[in-house]
Write a structure and sequence with these properties.
The complex is a heterodimer.
Chain A lengths: L2 H12 L9 E3 L4 E4 L11 H4 L8 H5 L7 E5 L6 E4 L7 E5 L6 E8 L2 H14 L12 E4 L2 E8 L6 E10 L2 E10 H6 L1 H10 L1 E5 L18 H5 L3 E4 L6 E4 L7 E5 L6 E8 L2 H14 L12 E4 L2 E12 L2 E13 L2 E10 H6 L1 H10 L1 E4 L31 E2 L7 E2 L7 E5 L3 E9 L2 H11 L7 H6 L2 E4 L2 E13 L5 E14 L2 E10 H17 L1 E2 L2
Chain B lengths: L12 H15 L1 H25 L1 H9 L3 E5 L1 H4 L6 E5 L1 H18 L8 H23 L1 E8 L3 E19 L2 E8 L12 E5 L5 E9 L2 E5 L11 E2 L5 E6 L12 E8 L5 E7 L13 E5 L2 E27 L6 E12 L2 E7 L5 E3 L2 E9 L14 E8 L5 H37 L1
Antiparallel strand pairs in B: 1-2, 3-4, 3-19, 4-5, 4-14, 6-7, 7-11, 8-10, 9-10, 11-12, 13-14, 14-15, 15-16, 17-18, 18-19
Classes of the chains: A alpha+beta, B alpha+beta.
C-alpha cells in the first residue's frame, strides 16, 4: 500500500474512536401543533398507556399476581329477550326469545374507524353501495353517550339490521340487531332502550395470590369461565410452560427455558386445508411440493381424527428449524396445534406435543352448564365437554328413530348410522350459513346456491327455532375422503351467534329418502339440555 | 536603502513542500484506488455483519459512520473472533469526494479535449453530494390507514423521541429530543438529564432498553429493574427482551424521573414506545401536573408532520388463486393539497410524489387469516413515506456522467480517426 494511502486510512480509522455519551441534553425549541394533529388521551391508566391490554398479558398472569382491573359491560335485557353467553367479539349477546333469527350483540372497540365500519355494514354486509355521511345518521343514546343509528333493510320483507354505535378515535363500539323485518320493527324501541342502558363497569378482582395449579396444569382462563364462554383446555406437558393466550392463539406454550420454541392452538383458521398447507409448506418452509392431506399421517387432536405435518429446514428464513403441526378441518376452517423451534428440541418434544394434541378439549364453562340429561340410550353422562367421545351423549337429547344405531366412538355431539353406509350426526361449525351450505353442496359436486335458491330453501323446526333445510343429491365426497356415489344429503342448519348448529344425514339416495321422515321426527324431539 | 521598508518574503520552502505534498496526497490516483479497495472491504464486512446485526445497524455503523470496529464473529465463529477497525462509509465517501474534486476537477487540465472526463467527474461528485444530502436532510417513515381515515403525520420505522407536551388552548405545545442523543448515556447505570430554562422541572432518563416489555409486579414475579408504583398502587417494571436484528420489531422503553425545580418533588414512571396505530390514533402520555399545568411525557417513534393530509379511500388486495399469497395490493388515496383535493392510485412502482415526499405502497394489515371485511376486521394499508430533497439528484447525476462519457468517447474516436487519416496520408506526402 502506498505511503499516502496508508496515512489516510490510519487517520480515518482513528476517527472511529467514539466520543463519550453526554449526561445532559436540551430539548429542541417548542413547537405548536393543533390538537387534531396530536390526538392525545391524557391521564390514561397505566395499563392502557403501556399497551398492556393489547399485548400478551405475559407471565404475570400465570404467576398468580393481582389481576388487573377488568372492564365489564352491562345492559338491561328487554322483556321477551333472552341473554346468551358472550362469544368472541360479542361482549354481550341476546336473542329475541323463541326466534333464532333475531339476534343482538355488543361489540366493543372494533378497529377501523367510523367510515370503514359504515362501509363494512352497508356495502360488504348488505350490498348497499351508497354509504351515508355520519352526520346524516339519526342520533341515539348508547352507553350514556351520544351515538348514531344505522337501520338497513336491503330487501323488503328480508332481514333488517339496526346498529347503534359510537366511536373512540378509530375504535367503534356497536350494538347490532339483525332479524326479520317484522320482528325488527316490533323490537326497535326495546333495542334503543337496551342501547341506552348499556354501561361499562370497571371491577378489580380480589387479589388471589399464586394460583393453585397442579402439574400438569390445565390452561383455561378463569375470566372466560366466569363469563360463560367456551374455553379450550389442554394438559401442559412436563417441562413446558404456559403463556397467556394471544390474538389468534387460544392456548399458548413454550418449552421451558427455550424462547425460540413456541406452541399454540389456533381455532377456526380460514383458507381451507389446501390453502393452509400451501402456507405451511411453501411460504413458511419454502417447500414447493405440497403433499395431499390424505398422504399425511393421522393423529388425534382434541378428540378428533386429524393429520400431522412434520417439517424441518429453514422456517421463516431461519435455518435449522422444525415444525410439528396437528390439525383438523371443519369445512374451510382449521383448528391447528403448532410447535416450532430448533430442530433438535422439536424432535425431543414430539411425544409431549402429540400427547398435548390428544388432550385438547373445548370446554363449555360458566353459567350455562352443558350437562346432558338423558340420551337416547339413557347413557349417563353429563359432561362439560361439548365434543364427546361417546356417541349419543352431550348437551343435547333426542328420540332416536328406529333403524338408527349409535355410533361409537365418535367426536360428534350425537352420531348414528343407518342402512348400508348412511350416517346422521349433529355438530356445529363456526362461520356464516350461506358459505357453509355452499361447502356442503361442494361435497356433492354441486355449484353454490344462487340468491333465489338460497331464499327458497325450506325451514324445519329445530331447537325451538327455524332451521334451514338443505336437500341435495350427487356423488358425495367428504373433506375426510369418504365417498358415496349416488348420494343424497339432508342438512338442517341453524345459526346461533357465530356458530352453525346442524344435523346432517348422508347416505345412498334411496336410503336417505326412506329416512327423511325419521330425520324430521328426530329434529322435532331434539332438545338442549338445561 | 531604507531598512525599515516592509518586505514581502516568500513562505519557507518546507511549508510549500508540505502544502504541495498534501495537495499531491489529496489528488493522488493511488489514494483513489486505496479508497475504493477500502470501500470494497467495508462492503464485504458489512454484508457479513448484516446476518448478525441486521440491516439497520449495519447501515448506521458501517456505512454512515466515520469508522467501525468489525467483530468478525460471523466469519470465524464465536470462539475465534477478531476485531478489525475499518474506516466507515462516511469517511471513505468524504475522502473520495475531496480526492475527486481536487484530483479530477481542480488539478485536471482544463482543456476541451478533457471536457468529457471533467463532466464525468462532476457527475460523480453530484452523486456523492446527493448521498450526503440524503444522509443529513432526509428521513423515512410510514403511514398506516384504514379506509376512510386520514392523517397528516408519518412515523419513523426505527427511531424514538421523547416528547414533552402541554395543552395550550386548541393547540399542543410540544418539545422533543431524539433518543439517539441520550439512549447511549441512559443505559445500564447511566443517567441523562434533560432540561430547559423555561421548564419548571428537569427530566432524568435511565435504564434505556432497546427492546423490552412492561410487566406488572406480583408476588411471584421477579423484577430485574426497579418497580414503579402508579397512582392506583400497582407496580410496573420493564423486562428486557432480546434485541431483534430486524430493528422495527423492537420496542424501546426507559425509566424517567421528573424532578420539580422548586421543592425537588419527584414523579417517577416508566415509558414504553409502543404504537397503537392504526387501531387507535391517540397517544397516551404519562400525565403529571405542576403548578396547575398538565404535562404529558411520551416515548414514541419519531413523528413528522406531512405538508398535506392524506386519506385512504380504498385498499384492494388480490391473492394468487388457491393461496393466501398476495398477487397485488394497491391503494386509492385523496391528497388535500392547499385546499385542492387530488385522487391518486398508489401501487407497485407507482408512488405518490408531492412536496419532496414520496409515498410507496409497502404493506397491509391485519396479516392474520381473518383479515379483511366482511369476514373479519377491515383492512388497513401501509405506506413507506420518504422525504428526500435529493430524491432526483442521482438521476440527474447519471445523465451528467452519461453525457461526460459520451463526449469523452466521441472525442477519443474523432482523435483516433484523425490520426488514422493522418497516418494513411503520410506515405503520399513522402
Amino acid at each position: 500500500m502506498s505511503y499516502p494511502g496508508l496515512l489516510l486510512l490510519t487517520t480515518l480509522a482513528l476517527l472511529s474512536a467514539g466520543c463519550s455519551d453526554p449526561t445532559e441534553v436540551s430539548f429542541a425549541a417548542p413547537r405548536k401543533v393543533s390538537r387534531d394533529q396530536r390526538p392525545t388521551t391524557w391521564d390514561a391508566p397505566t395499563r392502557d398507556r403501556l399497551g398492556m391490554r393489547e399485548m400478551d398479558k405475559a407471565s404475570a398472569h400465570d404467576a398468580g399476581q393481582q389481576e388487573p382491573s377488568q372492564e365489564r359491560w352491562t345492559g338491561t335485557t328487554p322483556s321477551g329477550w333472552e341473554e346468551l353467553a358472550p362469544q368472541r367479539f360479542r361482549e354481550l349477546n341476546w336473542r329475541v326469545a323463541g326466534n333464532g333469527e333475531a339476534e343482538c350483540y355488543l361489540s366493543v372497540g372494533v378497529g377501523g374507524g367510523v367510515a370503514a365500519n359504515l362501509k363494512r355494514w352497508y356495502t360488504a354486509q348488505n350490498g348497499i353501495q351508497d354509504v351515508p355521511a355520519l352526520e346524516s345518521l339519526p342520533v341515539v343514546e348508547i352507553a350514556g353517550r351520544k351515538g348514531h343509528l344505522v337501520e338497513l333493510t336491503p330487501a323488503p320483507g328480508g332481514k333488517t339490521t339496526m346498529i347503534a354505535f359510537f366511536a373512540d378515535g378509530a375504535q367503534v363500539t356497536s350494538l347490532k340487531f339483525t332479524g326479520p323485518e317484522v320482528v325488527a320493527k316490533q323490537q326497535r324501541e326495546p333495542f334503543l332502550a337496551l342501547a341506552k342502558s348499556l354501561r361499562m363497569e370497571t371491577e378489580r378482582p380480589t387479589e388471589t395470590g399464586p394460583r393453585t395449579t397442579t402439574n400438569p396444569t390445565r390452561n383455561a382462563p378463569a375470566n372466560d369461565q366466569a363469563r360463560g364462554e367456551k374455553a379450550w383446555t389442554g394438559t401442559t406437558p412436563n417441562g413446558w410452560e404456559e403463556l397467556a393466550p394471544q390474538r389468534f392463539r387460544e392456548l399458548n406454550w413454550r418449552v421451558a427455558g427455550n424462547r425460540e420454541t413456541e406452541c399454540y392452538l389456533s381455532v377456526a383458521v380460514g383458507g381451507g386445508v389446501a390453502g393452509n398447507m400451501t402456507r405451511w409448506y411453501s411460504q413458511q418452509f419454502g417447500i414447493a411440493d405440497v403433499p395431499k392431506p390424505e398422504a399425511l399421517p393421522e393423529v388425534e387432536i382434541a378428540g378428533r381424527q386429524g393429520r400431522l405435518v412434520e417439517l424441518a429446514g429453514t422456517y421463516n428464513e431461519k435455518p435449522g428449524m422444525a415444525m410439528l403441526l396437528a390439525f383438523f378441518a371443519d369445512g374451510a376452517q382449521l383448528t391447528t396445534l403448532k410447535l416450532t423451534g430448533p430442530e433438535a428440541i422439536v424432535k425431543q418434544n414430539r411425544e409431549p406435543f402429540l400427547a398435548l394434541a390428544k388432550s385438547l378439549r373445548m370446554q363449555a364453562a360458566g353459567p350455562e352448564p352443558a350437562g346432558a340429561q338423558g340420551t337416547p340410550e339413557k347413557t349417563p353422562a353429563p359432561s362439560i365437554h361439548s365434543t364427546q367421545k361417546s356417541g349419543g351423549t352431550g348437551a343435547f337429547t333426542a328420540t332416536v328413530p328406529a333403524g338408527w344405531t349409535v355410533k361409537t366412538p365418535s367426536n360428534r355431539m350425537l352420531h348414528y348410522t343407518f342402512g348400508s353406509e348412511g350416517e346422521v350426526y349433529m355438530s356445529q361449525l363456526g362461520g356464516t350459513l350461506r358459505p357453509t351450505l355452499d361447502i356442503w353442496r361442494g361435497e356433492l359436486g354441486l355449484p353454490a346456491l344462487s340468491d333465489s335458491e338460497f331464499q327458497a330453501l325450506p325451514k324445519v323446526s329445530m331447537l325451538g327455532g327455524d332451521a334451514t333445510l338443505l336437500d341435495a343429491a350427487g356423488n358425495f365426497q367428504s373433506m375426510s375422503g369418504k365417498q358415496i356415489p349416488g348420494a343424497r344429503v339432508l342438512i338442517a342448519a341453524q345459526v346461533e351467534g357465530t356458530a352453525i348448529v346442524f344435523v346432517k344425514l348422508v347416505g345412498k339416495a334411496a336410503e336417505v329418502e326412506a329416512q327423511r321422515e325419521a330425520l324430521l321426527q328426530f329434529l322435532a324431539t331434539l332438545r338442549r339440555t338445561p | 536603502m531604507n531598512t525599515n521598508a516592509p518586505t514581502t518574503s516568500a513562505p519557507p520552502l518546507s511549508r510549500v513542500h508540505w502544502a504541495r505534498q498534501a495537495l499531491e496526497l489529496c489528488s493522488s490516483l493511488k489514494v483513489t484506488v486505496v479508497l475504493l479497495l477500502a470501500f470494497g472491504l467495508l462492503t464485504f464486512a458489512g454484508t457479513l455483519a448484516q446476518e448478525k446485526l441486521g440491516l439497520f445497524v449495519v447501515q448506521r455503523d458501517f456505512f454512515e459512520s466515520f469508522g467501525v470496529v468489525w467483530d468478525t464473529e460471523v466469519w470465524f465463529g464465536s470462539d475465534r473472533t477478531l476485531k478489525i477497525p475499518l474506516p466507515g462509509g462516511y469517511s471513505i465517501m468524504l475522502a473520495l469526494f475531496v480526492n475527486l474534486v481536487i484530483g479530477g476537477i481542480v488539478r485536471h487540465r482544463w482543456h476541451w479535449r478533457n471536457m468529457g472526463i471533467l463532466v464525468t467527474h462532476l457527475g460523480i461528485a453530484l452523486l456523492l453530494i446527493a448521498g450526503f444530502v440524503k444522509l443529513h436532510f432526509s428521513y423515512a417513515g410510514h403511514v398506516a390507514l384504514y379506509e376512510g381515515n386520514q392523517t397528516s403525520t408519518m412515523i419513523s420505522f426505527h427511531d424514538y423521541e421523547l416528547a414533552l407536551s402541554r395543552l395550550d388552548g386548541d393547540n399542543i405545545v410540544e418539545r422533543t429530543i431524539e433518543s439517539a442523543r441520550f439512549d447511549g448515556g441512559a443505559r445500564g447505570l447511566g443517567r441523562v438529564t434533560m432540561t430547559a430554562d423555561d421548564l419548571p422541572f428537569t427530566i432524568v432518563v435511565s435504564h434505556w432498553l432497546d427492546n423490552c416489555e412492561p410487566m406488572q409486579k406480583g408476588p411471584m414475579v421477579q423484577a430485574r429493574l426497579p418497580v414503579v408504583t402508579d397512582a392506583a398502587g400497582a407496580g410496573y417494571f420493564l423486562e428486557e427482551q432480546k434485541v431483534e436484528a430486524e430493528r422495527e420489531r423492537n420496542t424501546a422503553g426507559c425509566y424517567v424521573k421528573i424532578v420539580e425545580k422548586v421543592g425537588r418533588k419527584e414523579h417517577e414512571t416508566i415509558l414504553y414506545g409502543w404504537d397503537p396505530r392504526p387501531k387507535a390514533e391517540d397517544r397516551r402520555p404519562y400525565t403529571f401536573r405542576i403548578d396547575g399545568v398538565t404535562w404529558g411525557l411520551d416515548l414514541r417513534r419519531v413523528v413528522w408532520d406531512l405538508p398535506f393530509p392524506v386519506r385512504l379511500d380504498k385498499f384492494q388486495k388480490t391473492d394468487h388463486p388457491g393461496t393466501m399469497t398476495p398477487r397485488d395490493f394497491s391503494s386509492w388515496v385523496t391528497v388535500f393539497d392547499g385546499g385542492v383535493e387530488r385522487k391518486v392510485h398508489i401501487y407497485m412502482n407507482h408512488p405518490l410524489r408531492s412536496h419532496d415526499h414520496v409515498f410507496f405502497q409497502t404493506n397491509w394489515g391485519p396479516q392474520g387469516p381473518r383479515g379483511g371485511a366482511p369476514l373479519g376486521p377491515p383492512w388497513y394499508s401501509v405506506f413507506e413515506v420518504a422525504r428526500n430533497p435529493s430524491d432526483d439528484w442521482p438521476k440527474y447525476a447519471s445523465y451528467v456522467v452519461f453525457a461526460g462519457l459520451l463526449v469523452h468517447f466521441v472525442t477519443k474516436l474523432l482523435r483516433y480517426l484523425q490520426s488514422s487519416t493522418r497516418k494513411a496520408s503520410l506515405p503520399e506526402m513522402s
